[in-house]
């Protein structure tokens, strides 16, 4: 089969026109932390397949969980029926988060849609407050709480619900910002149902890190004004930032939490929206039901992924990766055209002053044996926790080289 030719003729890739202007590369195998291309090249995966494959690829325990579940059933509707893998997963997620009611969805964007519907139905109000620089997904309810100016969804602004946007949180504690935040919440409190944010790390909106004090203040303001706090932990959940959840940095519990991405270890699409007993009781019947809600295969592999996470020293692994990224990316800070270098947990970011040439950055990284997928002004990595020191050094070398080559010509 002519995969490249047929891909170019028929496949519409994400965030791209058809055919895509940037080359796409055929993967024939993924194992451990490596991707093997059709031409035989091996690349260290610096992206965890968009932050999901925290254990790496082709893991025998995850493979076994899928195989065992497949022999019983691949899927059954969740309306009026239930099954052990989904029940066990919900029980475990409730224990990990302290949020006892679990709605299983089929993608991160849908989890956010469900969270928004919960908040609106619970309060009877129809506006949310969030901060600029955020990203919560590509469906309509989620797009409405993404950054309306600098985000990727401005084309749809006229069709989206109008919510309240506070300024982007600063990178460091700022008492003045917290005061401004309090004023904004107070000014709109009577029309707000909830506050929704990505805890500590804003992901696809710019890979921006902000202090836990901001999250703590948002929790206080939600309580003060009778609002719900929604934590979008789809990118930050399951250890990526150095804590199990981003909220743990601030020691707060949200009223509603969204999980996804790493939930299944990158094997299958699955997400969850969790909430308190109070919210569930106030919502009552939630009119939402994805066809593949609670899919047994996804639930089985999610349980196996949580088993692995509980068994492996993920805190030490993430701390080791954080130290390696900080040391390895330090030289990039001196490259012409680089605005900032920042690291938190297993997240490393090189921010350039001008938008990068995606194809050029990818070519540079691939020459160094690494797969990266930059966007905007960001060359970043979120490697699997299983990434060894040598491979981590290869990733940071590739990122530094790409940053230097991304500098505008003199």
Automatic annotation (TrEMBL):
PROSITE patterns: AA_TRANSFER_CLASS_3. Pfam families: Aminotran_3 (PF00202). Its EC number is 2.6.1.62. The keyword Aminoacyl-tRNA synthetase does not apply. It is found in: Cytoplasm. It catalyses: (8S)-8-amino-7-oxononanoate + S-adenosyl-L-methionine = S-adenosyl-4-methylsulfanyl-2-oxobutanoate + (7R,8S)-7,8-diammoniononanoate. Belongs to the class-III pyridoxal-phosphate-dependent aminotransferase family. BioA subfamily. This is Adenosylmethionine-8-amino-7-oxononanoate aminotransferase. It comes from Planomonospora alba. The lineage of its organism: Bacteria, Bacillati, Actinomycetota, Actinomycetes, Streptosporangiales. The gene is bioA.
């Amino acid at each position: 089969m002519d995969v490249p030719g047929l891909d170019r003729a028929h496949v519409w890739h994400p965030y791209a026109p058809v055919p895509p202007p940037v080359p796409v590369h055929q993967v024939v195998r993924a194992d451990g932390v490596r991707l093997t291309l059709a031409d035989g090249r091996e690349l260290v995966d610096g992206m965890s397949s968009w932050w999901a494959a925290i254990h790496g690829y082709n893991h025998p325990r995850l493979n076994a969980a899928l195989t065992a579940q497949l022999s019983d059933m691949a899927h059954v509707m969740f309306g009026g029926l239930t099954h052990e893998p989904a029940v066990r997963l919900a029980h475990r997620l409730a224990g990990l988060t302290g949020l006892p009611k679990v709605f299983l969805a089929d993608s991160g964007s849908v989890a956010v849609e469900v969270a928004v519907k919960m908040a609106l139905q619970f309060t009877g109000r129809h506006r949310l407050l969030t901060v600029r620089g955020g990203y919560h997904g590509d469906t309509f309810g989620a797009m409405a709480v993404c950054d309306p100016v600098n985000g990727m969804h401005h084309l749809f602004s006229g069709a989206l619900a109008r919510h309240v946007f506070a300024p982007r949180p600063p990178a460091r504690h700022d008492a003045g910002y917290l005061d401004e935040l309090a004023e904004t919440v107070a000014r709109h409190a009577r029309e707000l149902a909830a506050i929704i944010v990505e805890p500590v790390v804003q992901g696809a909106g710019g890979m921006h890190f902000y202090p836990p004090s901001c999250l703590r203040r948002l929790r206080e303001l939600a309580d003060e004004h009778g609002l719900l706090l929604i934590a979008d932990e789809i990118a930050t959940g399951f250890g990526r930032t150095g804590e199990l959840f981003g909220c743990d940095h601030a020691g707060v519990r949200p009223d509603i939490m969204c999980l996804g991405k790493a939930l299944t270890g990158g094997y299958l699409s699955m997400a969850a929206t969790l909430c308190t007993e109070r919210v569930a009781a106030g919502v009552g019947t939630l009119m939402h039901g994805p066809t593949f809600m609670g899919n047994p295969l996804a639930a089985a592999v999610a349980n196996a992924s949580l088993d692995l996470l509980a068994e492996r020293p993920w805190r030490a692994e993430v701390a080791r990766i954080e130290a390696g990224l900080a040391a390895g990316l330090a030289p990039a800070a001196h490259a012409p055209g680089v605005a900032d270098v920042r690291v938190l947990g297993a997240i490393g970011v090189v921010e350039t002053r001008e938008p990068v040439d995606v194809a050029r950055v990818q070519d540079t990284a691939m020459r160094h044996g690494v797969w990266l997928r930059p966007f905007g002004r960001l060359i970043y990595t979120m490697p699997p926790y299983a990434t060894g020191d040598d491979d981590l050094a290869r990733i940071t070398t590739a990122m530094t080289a790409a940053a230097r080559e991304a500098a505008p010509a003199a």
